[in-house]
Amino acid sequence: MGNEAPYNGDDNLSSQKNHYLFYAPMIARILDAEFHTVSQSGIGFMIRWFDFIMADFYDQMAATGNNASRWDFTLWQPDVVVNLG
C-alpha cells in the first residue's frame, strides 16, 4: 500500500502502489518460485474494519472486497502460504 508514495504523503492512489516491489514477489523471484497473491489493505485478522476479516477473504481470487470468487484448490495447491499482516 503506497510503497511508491512520497514520504509522509498520501498513499491512496493506484499510481503509488507497486506490488512488483513488495517483499513477497521479490523473494519469489529470488527463489524462482511461482507466486500468487490476493491482497487487501487494512483487513483485520481478528477484528473487523470492513464487513469481513482475513479468514473470510483467504480463498477468494479477486481482491475486490468480500465476493463470490473462489480459488480452486483441486487445480493447484501451494507449497507455502505466507500471510504478512
SSE map:
Blueprint: H1 23-31, H2 54-57
What structural keywords apply?
0% strand; 2 domains; mainly alpha; 85 residues; 2 helices; single chain
Secondary structure tally: strands: 0
Unreliable stretches, pLDDT < 50, 5 or more residues? none
Give the overall average pLDDT: 77
Global outline: globular
Outline the structure in words.
The chain is mainly α. The protein folds into 2 domains: 1-37, no CATH class; 41-73, no CATH class. It has 2 helices and no strands. The longest helix is centred in the first third of the chain and has 9 residues, at 23-31. The protein is globular and about 45 Å long. The two termini are 12 Å apart. The model has no long low-confidence stretch (mean pLDDT 77).
Describe the structure in brief.
The protein is mostly helical and 85 residues long. Helix content is 15%, strand content 0%.
